[in-house]
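Quick one:
INPUT:
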């Protein structure tokens, strides 16, 4: 009974303070190529070799990012410049929404490639009407930054496609792309984070051997009722977890996560729940289990919630949300 009462008091205290949320993004389209069997394309995707040469796009069972294996790869023609496209599946875009697209990219042999990304009305080069980004790649290692997305602005609502066009010089080797994601900003669903000592009314200061416990949870500030992943398993991305913490020490360096994940078995539909307006699902986490707090001084901490699963076909909320940072001090 005492434990239940404490958790209830902590939850009420967190909800009484301003929202902690810093940034959230809801996924509209996501492809990491891990669920296909190369050379098959993802369902409803298309490849067009516009000049009919030996250069082409194709999926591969190797060459992907470090946390995956598979990808899509362009191989250049030895004589002709590239004129090769791949198109995502169709996705409905709302003219009133702001979208951003991200991808990871690398090249072989440190060679340059010309990659252009377009918003299209069909899976055909003639339908490309908006240049989203122009990359001249020389990336022997995968590069891509979620904080530097490319703006996608549909002129009208309707089904659109993202077209990736390789216009690389002849004999330029290979170009690899992985982890493509199109998202919109999420404002209704926010991630709360607070040190339990501060929530209870005490300064967030600790001795070297004290337990550093935080409360983190998802709160629905909107009017809809999304389906969310309530498991909130903690660990290190990209293992199969929902919560990851970023801990920056007094020296300005990020502390590594000590454990890959909390072992809780495979996700299933029982791990998901409806989250009505003005409600929260969350948990307390002992950060000593996951990170070393081995220096005196202030630590900056924030949490990241991610869910890219919908095992029960419930229409689960897909995307990631980052909390505002908090500061705890060891003295």
């Amino acid at each position: 009974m005492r434990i239940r009462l404490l958790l209830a008091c902590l939850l009420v205290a967190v909800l009484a303070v301003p929202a902690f949320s810093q940034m959230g993004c809801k996924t509209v389209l996501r492809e990491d190529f891990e669920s296909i069997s190369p050379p098959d394309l993802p369902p409803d995707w298309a490849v067009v070799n516009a000049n009919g040469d030996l250069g082409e796009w194709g999926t591969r069972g190797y060459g992907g990012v470090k946390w995956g294996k598979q990808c899509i790869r362009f191989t250049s023609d030895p004589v002709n410049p590239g004129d090769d496209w791949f198109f995502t599946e169709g996705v409905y875009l709302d003219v009133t929404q702001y979208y951003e697209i991200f991808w990871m990219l690398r090249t072989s042999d440190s060679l340059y490639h010309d990659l252009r990304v377009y918003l299209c009305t069909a899976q055909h080069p003639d339908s490309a009407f908006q240049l989203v980004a122009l990359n001249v790649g020389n990336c022997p290692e995968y590069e891509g930054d979620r904080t530097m997305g490319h703006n996608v602005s549909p002129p009208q609502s309707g089904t659109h496609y993202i077209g990736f066009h390789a216009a690389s010089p002849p004999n330029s080797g290979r170009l690899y792309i992985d982890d493509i994601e199109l998202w919109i900003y999420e404002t209704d669903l926010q991630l709360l984070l607070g040190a339990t000592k501060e929530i209870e009314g005490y300064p967030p200061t600790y001795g070297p051997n004290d337990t550093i416990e935080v409360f983190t949870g998802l709160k629905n500030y909107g009017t809809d009722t999304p389906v969310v992943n309530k498991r909130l398993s903690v660990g290190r991305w990209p293992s199969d977890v929902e919560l990851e913490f970023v801990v920056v020490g007094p020296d300005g360096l990020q502390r590594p996560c000590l454990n890959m994940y909390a072992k809780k078995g495979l996700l299933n539909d029982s791990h998901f729940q409806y989250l009505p307006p003005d409600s929260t699902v969350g948990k307390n986490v002992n950060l000593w289990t996951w990170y070393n707090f081995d220096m005196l001084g202030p630590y900056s901490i924030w949490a990241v919630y991610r869910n890219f699963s919908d095992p029960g076909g419930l229409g689960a909320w897909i995307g990631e949300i980052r909390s505002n940072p908090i500061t705890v001090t060891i003295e």
